[in-house]
Design a protein that fits this description.
mainly alpha, two-stranded antiparallel ribbon, two-stranded antiparallel sheet
Length: about 240
C-alpha cells in the first residue's frame, strides 16, 4: 500500500470466470487503512508468492524427486504412519494422493488431498483433547464440525497446535475469499479442467505434503524407507 497509495483508496470487486461478483473489498479511504483493504493487498501479494514458490521451488523439487527416485504407495505409507497429521485409517488414501502429485497427475492429487485436510485438522484437535463436535438442537444429534466451523470457532486451538503462520496459510489457500478458496470450489464443482494444474492448486497439494512432514523433520536421520534396506547377498 505504501508503493501504490492511490490504488488503495478505492474499493475493488472480485469476479469469477463468468463475471459474477464473488467478493467486494472496501477502499482504505483517506484515514487509517481499512482492514478489508489491507487484506485485499495481502491476498494479492500471497497469490504472487505462491506463483513464485511453485515455479521456482516446488515444481523443481517435485520433478527432480520423480525423475531420480522410485515412488510408490508403500514408500509414502512408510513415512505417513509416523506423522501425527495423518489418521491411521487414512494413510493409504494420503499415500495415493501424494503419489499422484509427484507423478504430475494434479487432478487426482487435488481431489484426493483437499477433503483430507478437514479430517486431519479434526484428528489433531481431538488428539490435543478438544471436542470437535457440535450438537444440533433441531435433530438432537451430534455432528463433526466442518473445516469452516473449525476456523471460525476453534481458531485459537488450531493456532496453538500448528502455529498462526501455518493456519493462516491453510485458510488463505483452501477457505478464504478473496483467494483461491480451493475447498469450496472443489466441493461445489466450480473447478475447470485446467485449474488443478495452476499454481494455487499445486501449492495446495504441496502444503498438505509439508504439513505431513513437518513433525518428522527432527527425526529424518532415524526414518527408514523400503529402498533404504540393505539388499541381502546370496551365499555361495
Amino acid at each position: 500500500m505504501r508503493e501504490h497509495p492511490l490504488s488503495s483508496l478505492f474499493g475493488a470487486s472480485h469476479h469469477d470466470r463468468e463475471g459474477k461478483v464473488v467478493h467486494r473489498t472496501e477502499g482504505a479511504g483517506f484515514g487509517d487503512a481499512d482492514e478489508a483493504a489491507i487484506q485485499d493487498h495481502i491476498t494479492r501479494d500471497e497469490s504472487f508468492r505462491r506463483q513464485v514458490t511453485v515455479s521456482g521451488q516446488i515444481e523443481v523439487a517435485r520433478q527432480s524427486i520423480a525423475r531420480e527416485h522410485f515412488l510408490s504407495d508403500d514408500i509414502f505409507a512408510e513415512l505417513l504412519v509416523h506423522t501425527p497429521f495423518v489418521p491411521n485409517e487414512l494413510v493409504r488414501t494420503f499415500s495415493r494422493g501424494f503419489l499422484r502429485f509427484f507423478q504430475g497427475d494434479f487432478v487426482s492429487s487435488l481431489y484426493v488431498l483437499t477433503p483430507l485436510v478437514e479430517s486431519s485438522l479434526r484428528h489433531l484437535l481431538k488428539a490435543d483433547g478438544h471436542d470437535v463436535t457440535i450438537f444440533d438442537d433441531a435433530t438432537q444429534t451430534q455432528q463433526d464440525r466442518t473445516i469452516s466451523s473449525l476456523f471460525e470457532q476453534m481458531r485459537s486451538e488450531l493456532d496453538a497446535i500448528l502455529g498462526p503462520a501455518i493456519t493462516t496459510d491453510i485458510e488463505s489457500v483452501f477457505l478464504k475469499r478473496p483467494g483461491p478458496h480451493i475447498r469450496h470450489a472443489l466441493a461445489h464443482g466450480l473447478l475447470h479442467d485446467g485449474d488443478p494444474y495452476g499454481p494455487d492448486a499445486i501449492y495446495a497439494c504441496w502444503l498438505v505434503f509439508r504439513l505431513c512432514l513437518i513433525p518428522l523433520f527432527p527425526y529424518r536421520d532415524q526414518l527408514r524407507l523400503p529402498f533404504d534396506e540393505p539388499v541381502p547377498t546370496l551365499s555361495a
